[in-house]
Write the structure tokens for this entry.
Amino acid sequence: MTTRTHSDSAHGSHHDTDHTNGGPDHLRHRPRRLRRTAAMRALVRETRLSPDNFIYPLFVRTGEGLRREVGSMPGVFQLSVDEAVREAAAAKSDGVPGVLLFGLPDEKDLVGSGAYDPEAPVQAAARAIKQEVPGLLVVTDVCLCEYTSHGHCGILVDDEIANDVTVDQLVRAALSHAAAGADVVAPSDMMDGRVGRIRSALDDAGFQQTAIMSYAAKYCSAFYGPFREAADSAPAFGDRRSHQMDPANVDEAIREVALDIEEGADIVMVKPALAYLDVIARVKAEFNYPTAAYHVSGEYAMLKAAARNGWIDEPRAMLETLTSIRRAGADIIITYYAREAARALA
């Protein structure tokens, strides 16, 4: 018969109780161990956010020395070409690898012919940036909404957007952007079949190396409001529900992405980002294809407004937001915060 000694009892008691916090000593799994210090948290971090993930949108107009702040988007400006070059160079210096160009023409017409004018702001800025800021990726938005007098994304026939004639104009615009030096053209119109037509036209014209980043799943969203001020692209009547996607749908987004990949898209995009994180995750999981997400103007403006009212810590909220988009599966994040976030991550 074994007699339990005082020392045995004490030893057993030591193993039964964690004297530090009163918890059970057999609690082997303590996840907080890996959160204890900044170095430890960084070591086990699952999602890495880097300036390499960012593309910085720029709004370009004619003129010289122009830098007009957009009222609903603090820190975002309409820029003349010379100022766009300076902003692009500053972005590259901050570590941002690319810019996305939108144009504001002097004149608009019913068919958006300014979209393929070789001297239009986007084409002029693309040439200047490629010359003055070597190594910076230049992406160009391909759509008609900034160029049509009615503000819609295509050519109207009986007050409805005619798909195929609109695609003809989009092809002309994409070719003019490629000729100006764009590395990537990004059709954002949501017309059927435009990716395949643009790919064929680029290849036939000798621009086989020009990539296509398709706005594959672009939703009809309330979060685009500030952008329409920045790009002067609000529709004069009606809305864009006939071509942009219903916010309630996700299976449809998968079909749209599949079609664009089949037609030759090199990168597919989900827009907006924050309200559609589930869509980003589905797209990445199902296709494992280069995936972009657009952190749009309204999402940016809400953070700015809350920060200006002292309601949130803007730098933390910015990085938390961008990390959530990356965590959902986006390889590329188009964001007006690109420069600021890149500096914060440096």
Remarks:
- Residues 48-345 form a domain with the TIM Barrel fold (CATH 3.20.20.70).
- Residues 183 and 209 are 8 Å apart (CA to CA).
